[in-house]
Amino acid sequence: MVVRTRVNGEWREADVWPGASLLTMLRDSLGLFGSKNACEQGECGSCSVWLDGKLVCSCLVLAPQAHEREVRTVESLGAAAMNPVQEAFIEAGAVQCGFCTPGFIVAVTDLLQRDPAPNEISVREALSGNLCRCTGYQKILDAVALAARRIREPST
Ligand code: FES
Ligand code: FES
Hints:
Elements: E1 2-7, E2 10-15, H1 22-29, E3 48-51, E4 54-57, E5 70-72, H2 84-91, H3 101-114, H4 120-126, H5 138-152
Parallel strand pairs: 1-5
Antiparallel strand pairs: 1-2, 3-4, 3-5
Helix pairs in contact: 2-5
The chain binds FE2/S2 (inorganic) cluster (FES) (2 copies).
One FE2/S2 (inorganic) cluster binds near residues 37, 38, 46 and 47.
């Protein structure tokens, strides 16, 4: 079936198997490889995208469910230059293999859009669905704190 979805501001069409996931559609039909497939079970958050502004695991959404809806992927962030969250992850050393990073970047961006000054419990809660297999999580928490500070005080 043909699924028509507004992806990162542009209407796109994909001819997909009705049982295909949104993640498969994004990667295999639309060539958007930023969202990663690490578990395909909703366990790791590597495939996080926004569907009509709500954070979802795209591996758990059927592609037809995105028909005539709005999807934003990690590719929408920092298209011209890195956004503060991306910069903070690099500066804080929160990226190792980088496989989980797009999902974290999306989840952190989502959190900081809702709450630019989250406390540590809110951060841990917001990132509880994201798994990193490489790094200790402390550097990721440091990156979130740095990004939050930069968003609140851009000159720091
Ligand atoms: S690939 Fe979707 S949650 Fe892991
Ligand atoms: S940096 Fe490798 S899985 Fe997170």
